Amino acid sequence: MNKTDIDRMLGDLGEEYRVRDAREAAERRAREEGARLAASDQRAREEGAMRAKARAYLAELDPKSPTGQWFASFATHYATREEAALEVIRAESELERGL
Length: 99
Description:
Helix content: over 70%
Number of strands: 0
Strand content: under 5%
Largest sheet: none
Structural class: mainly alpha
């Protein structure tokens, strides 16, 4: 085996490693993107569930009750009553979890 053959073998081996590294990097990026999309979907589902709870909160709220009167005042600081109810639901959720 002469120097040219050895150089060619080393070049081939180096190319195999470059191809493998590129494939592994692409696979890693695909896994990371999949995980990012799954996390985004989970956040969207959680947000949808929280908004549904906020709408239910508003539907059950008696505007003449002390809680209803408090909420009317509280809601003036938010763009919509749903946004205010969402904040109440989030706060209640944090209290339940002990945060």
